Amino acid sequence: MKCGGGFVYRDRVDELSPRTLAIVAGRPHGPGEPLNTPIVPASTYGAGTDRAYARQNGTPTWEAFEEAIGALEGGHATAFASGIATLAAIVDVLPLGAKVAVPTFSYAGSRGLLAHEHERGRLVVSEIPPGNTNGWLDAAREADLVWLESPTNPTLDLIDIEAVTGAPARTARVVVDNTFATPLGRQPLKLGADVVVHSATKLIGGHSDLLLGVTIAADEELAKELRDSRSRNGATPGALEAWLALRGLRTLPVRLAEQASTAAKLADLLARHPAVTKVRYPGEGIMIGLELGSAEAADKVCASLALIRHATSLGGVESLVERRATMEGDRHVPPGLIRFSVGLEDPDDLWRDLERALSADA
Ligand SMILES: *Cc1c(COP(=O)(O)O)cnc(C)c1O
């Protein structure tokens, strides 16, 4: 007996919730096809079609991931080898000497790449404090590219994205690093941004077992430029990584809801703990900034935690902490600031671990 042709979600993108899109987008749907696009480790294809070589023309596995994240963000997606490779591609398609504005407190790797280009005279980069909305409005008029990250990594400051995209006489291209918010929290293309980028290494992959990045452009022409940059520079993802990222994306909505609920509980408890001087929690998401009175006190907490692992990175099912001022490029953040990525463990177990580590400090 033949089954139907399957659910063609593309006809119904506007009516489906992100949670449903995360499940249905990027699947083969013909009769007899596997429900999941397999891992296709191809470098080349039989001659005679437009698909000749994977670096230039992609693979079915990358495309399945791109289709799914593109549906969630509402644009044209291109997968890259890592999150930082997306920034390199966005910089690659700028003219020489272009002006770029970036938040003072934002991912150290992004600022590091831009500083490198600035030092070599290839770009003119300025850093703007996240909350300086007038500074961002000026940049939207004067710069070629505005790079936004909100909440910022690691200080969890917010930037008013709609104010920047809607800036009067805006000429700058607006890029939003949506790694922390995820498309469940916010879809920046719908707020007027030109490009969204993700480090899918973090929440989208969700299991700390892959490196992958993705750009999602509002405009097909810019998407093509970014894809051409990927081919030219060879910043292509691996087949296994793209497959794992798509598998991670399927459960992102439920992981995020659960981890964010735990984060809200822990942020509240931490705010009332006497050893904690400040809690940064923007109100949703899985990241908490927890400040102690000194670098030494924060180091002691990181070393005393047992269930919560002391390691860099974020967004996985396992809880991680790190004192960011120890990292090259983040020396200017508060010395006692611990970045806490809240995982999928039981909130009570996490709180017991935190309480024990915080009282070890007293
Ligand atoms: C980790 C991270 C990146 C870089 O991603 P990689 O996959 O490590 O290259 C970019 N932006 C933010 C906000 C990040 O947290």
Automatic annotation (TrEMBL):
<dbReference type="InterPro" id="IPR015424">
    <property type="entry name" value="PyrdxlP-dep_Trfase"/>
</dbReference>
<keyword id="KW-0045">Antibiotic biosynthesis</keyword>
<keyword id="KW-0663">Pyridoxal phosphate</keyword>
<dbReference type="InterPro" id="IPR000277">
    <property type="entry name" value="Cys/Met-Metab_PyrdxlP-dep_enz"/>
</dbReference>
<protein>
    <submittedName>
        <fullName>PLP-dependent transferase</fullName>
    </submittedName>
</protein>
<comment type="similarity">
    <text>Belongs to the trans-sulfuration enzymes family.</text>
</comment>
<dbReference type="GO" id="GO:0016740">
    <property type="term" value="F:transferase activity"/>
</dbReference>
<dbReference type="InterPro" id="IPR015422">
    <property type="entry name" value="PyrdxlP-dep_Trfase_small"/>
</dbReference>
<dbReference type="Pfam" id="PF01053">
    <property type="entry name" value="Cys_Met_Meta_PP"/>
</dbReference>
<dbReference type="InterPro" id="IPR015421">
    <property type="entry name" value="PyrdxlP-dep_Trfase_major"/>
</dbReference>
<keyword id="KW-0808">Transferase</keyword>
